[in-house]
Amino acid sequence: EVGAPHSASGEEAQERDLSRLAPAPRRSRRWVPRRVVITPDALEHAHGRRIVERVEALGIEVERLRANRLTGVRGDDERQTYARAKATLAVVVSPPSRRRLQPISPSADWRVDLAEGCPAHCQYCYLAGSLSGPPVTRVYADLDEILDNLHGYVGTGTVTSRSTARSAEGTTFEASCYSDPLALDHLTGSWQRAVEHFGTWDAPVQLRWTTKYDDVDRFLDLPHGGRTRVRFSVNCRPVTDRWEGGTSGLVERITALRRLAVVGYPVGLTIAPIMPLEGWREHYSELLTLVEQATADIAGLDLTAELITHRFTASSKQVLQGWYPRTTLEMDEARRTVKRGRFGSAKHVYPREVMAELRGWFTEQLAARLPRCRVLYWT
Ligand code: SF4
């Protein structure tokens, strides 16, 4: 039955927190943008108008732009531009090129973007170097058209069809490549609509996203049909505490994973970016203990793990050092090996022996501690 609690303990399990391991979770973290703007084209779309209504109902003023170009974001220097952009939410129409979906191996068959940009301040952010210009968060007003466009992709793609472990998922769509859904959904409702769209869609499909937020209340009662896998991007405490500004705490994220799993969502861990910091075994062991404690009693748990080691490129390093000039994050080429990407790009990854040690440890520990967890890939 769609949306039925899988756990025998039902509501009680929903309420349970991880207080034995850490302080009880606080209220979900919700971003309040300092400036919200909407373009004239975005106002033409029903979803654009829904976003305006939603944002205004939260007491936030929405500035109607006269033209479709976003202005007033650049400051006197890079720091000021960064701060202004990160505090701005722009409701726009997605670029036409986005209607032609791109494959996104190994995570999913296709990438679908409902937004671009994120209000958090992770000092290793994956978006640095991928997106150009000031890091404004743009959410798309043409959501209904974006979702309709997916119908043409059912039964295509190679990632899930080639993997026997994943074939039951059908065609998979990744909706968090350039953004963090739970950082924005309270302002847009876009991912809620997407979950409902997939949940009631009569086809073998799966929606996927990953998040560092815990704002899941609005998702618990949706007709998700088990068709959305929500993964929580988690890390060991030193990484979370030092370099993930503006996100929800680790315990809050794991509690949110539990709450979704209890009402039947397939869930996952995106353990990223894995770093061999001093004492890493102990730190990552603590992370696995939190997950173990939070999921052990959930009947029918469908849990996956995606394991991604830290890497950087010359351009991401340059952007990140501009954004976070005093960062203590290690981005030292001399301590890395170069891995060439498909388009000739050079990624600086950990040397082979470090990778082997990390991979061996995670594989062994996950099998022993979270035996129901399926590892989808290591990179
Ligand atoms: Fe970047 Fe993700 Fe952190 Fe947002 S949550 S700043 S997208 S790494």
From TrEMBL:
Matching InterPro entries: SPL
Family matches, as Pfam families: SPL (PF20903)
GO terms assigned for molecular function: 4 iron, 4 sulfur cluster binding; DNA photolyase activity; S-adenosyl-L-methionine binding
Listed GO CC annotations: endospore-forming forespore
Region of interest: Disordered: 1-24
Name used for this protein in its record: Radical SAM protein
Species name: Desertihabitans brevis
